[in-house]
Amino acid sequence: MRILLGVLSGILALVFLAIGAMKIFNTEVFVGQLGLPSGMVVVLGLLEVAGALGLLAGFKIRVLGAAAAIGLVLMMLGAVGFHVISGDLLQNGLMPVVLLIVAAANAVLQFRIGVRPVAQVRASTAS
Question: Which residue has the higher pLDDT, 33 or 72?
Answer without folding.
Answer: 72
